[in-house]
């Protein structure tokens, strides 16, 4: 009954967009971030790339513009992750690492000494980033459509076990870090 008083929920239009690419437009550098999405192809175009202004002016309905929101949410992901670290010594080092400019690279630098923790951080951060990106898309009236080739699982690099590991193995975008989410890893 309550749903009928609020009206119908609008349907979100499908858009075949790479969430990691869109996240980099949304959460990049405030000065050079942002961009646009080609609504026909789902391709993300950073503002920093030269593009033909006449092309965007001629067909304004083709583009969804993306304003950069900055890295505050990503910083929050680091803080959230530190709260999950079981080793107080590692947590203390991370707390120091994320204070001031360069917090992201310093955090990853500290975590590089503990590969399992680094992998855990990337999993948490990437999932939260994708969630924020999906929410942004929904706010614009879109939803992510079919799986893209970059999201398809890849073979386990460590073990070479093609069939068993394909179900849960993928490489983190832009980092090339193998993530093993299967029993043999």
Task: Describe this entry's structure for a reader.
Pfam families: UPF0158. α2 packs across α7 (115-139), α4 (72-82) packs across α7 (115-139) and α5 runs antiparallel to α6 (103-111). This protein has helices spanning 2-6, 19-26, 53-58, 72-82, 88-97, 103-111, 115-139, 162-166, and strands spanning 13-15, 35-38, 44-46, 63-66, 142-144, 169-171, 178-180. It has eight helices and seven strands; from the N terminus they run αβαββαβααααβαββ. It is elongated and about 55 Å long. 43% of the residues lie in helices and 12% in strands. The chain has 185 residues and is of the alpha+beta class. It folds into two domains: 12-152, no CATH class; 153-185, no CATH class. Mean pLDDT is 77; it is low at 151-185. A three-stranded antiparallel sheet has the order 3-2-4, with helices on one face.
Search tags:
185 residues; alpha+beta; 3-stranded antiparallel beta sheet; two-stranded parallel ribbon; 7 strands; disordered C terminus
Distance between the termini: 49 Å
Instruction: Calculate Rg over CA atoms.
Output: 19 Å
Q: Portion of residues in helices? A: 40-55%
- Quickly count the helices: 8
Pfam family, one: UPF0158
InterPro entries: UPF0158
Produce a short descriptive summary:
Pfam families: UPF0158. InterPro entries: UPF0158. The chain is an alpha+beta fold and 185 residues long.
How are the elements arranged and paired?
Elements: H1 2-6, E1 13-15, H2 19-26, E2 35-38, E3 44-46, H3 53-58, E4 63-66, H4 72-82, H5 88-97, H6 103-111, H7 115-139, E5 142-144, H8 162-166, E6 169-171, E7 178-180
Parallel strand pairs: 1-5
Antiparallel strand pairs: 2-3, 2-4, 6-7
């Amino acid at each position: 009954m309550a749903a009928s008083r609020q009206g119908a929920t609008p349907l979100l239009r499908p858009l075949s967009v790479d969430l990691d690419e869109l996240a980099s437009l949304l959460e990049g550098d405030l000065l050079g971030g942002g961009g646009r999405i080609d609504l026909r192809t789902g391709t993300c175009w950073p503002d920093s790339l030269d593009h033909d202004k006449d092309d965007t002016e001629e067909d304004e309905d083709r583009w969804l513009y993306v304003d950069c929101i900055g890295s505050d949410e990503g910083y929050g992901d680091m803080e959230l992750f530190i709260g999950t670290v079981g080793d107080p010594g590692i947590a203390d080092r991370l707390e120091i690492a994320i204070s001031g400019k360069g917090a992201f690279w310093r955090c990853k630098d500290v975590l590089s000494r503990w590969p399992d923790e680094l992998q855990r951080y990337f999993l948490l951060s990437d999932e939260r980033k994708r969630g924020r990106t999906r929410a942004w898309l929904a706010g614009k009236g879109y939803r992510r459509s079919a799986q893209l080739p970059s999201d398809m699982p890849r073979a386990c690099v460590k073990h070479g076990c093609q069939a068993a590991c394909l179900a849960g193995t993928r490489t983190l975008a832009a980092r090339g870090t193998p993530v093993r989410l299967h029993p043999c890893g």
